[in-house]
Amino acid sequence: FKCVAAACFVFIAGTAHAGRGCEEKPPTAATLTQALTLAEKTRESLESSYRQSGTQVALLARMGQDLSKYGVTYSHAGWAYRQPNGIWRVVHKLNNCGTADGFIYRQGLGDFFLDDLYRYQAGITVPTPAVQRALLPYLTSGKVLTMQSQPYSMLSYAWGQKYQQSNQWAIETLAAAME
């Protein structure tokens, strides 16, 4: 993997919250603006990488909660891929708030970042061309669901087999695509 240095943006939210609460609340104009600005900056970086080196798959990360006391910057990751029409989509696993149920979602960049983030910052890591060639057909087909398992636990051990969390799903999906 190589990191796209220009893609590590920092857009600090006016008021930061540590993680997403379970209460349903409509997004504010400021939240929408920050999320969509981050989505657009991310799209610009992905497109720049596409023009320069043909990037079609990247690992995207976001800061849903403050994990700095654990030495961790990003709390959630998903696989972004470029469709033939030039639109970037993100495939990632999320759980239903307050439950042990997790599901795979395919969303646009705006939706990926519109999730009550702790800080409006994105991380982008571009896999090697060989890894991208293996991942792209996997991510764009029903195969993307094969690594999905229940129950979900956000505290699960990455190599454990009893529970699965979102970042573990991303790693397992990479391994399955490379197999």
Briefly characterize the structure.
It contains four helices and seven strands, in the order E-E-H-E-E-E-E-H-E-H-H.
Describe the structure.
Helix content is about 30%, strand content about 25%. It is α+β, with helices and mostly antiparallel strands. A hairpin with a 6-residue loop joins β5 and β6. The N terminus is likely disordered.
The share of residues in extended strands comes to 15-25%
Spell the H/E element sequence.
EEHEEEEHEHH
Given as residue ranges, the uncertain stretches (5+ residues, pLDDT < 50) are 1-20
Largest sheet: 7 strands, antiparallel
Secondary-structure content class: alpha+beta
- Separation of the first and last Cα atoms: 17 Å
The overall average pLDDT, rounded, is: 81
The whole-angstrom Rg is 16 Å
Looking at the structure, what is the overall shape?
Answer: globular
- Helical residue percent band: 25-40%
Number of helical runs? 4
How many DSSP-defined strands?
7
Which tags fit this structure?
single chain, 179 residues, alpha+beta, 4 helices
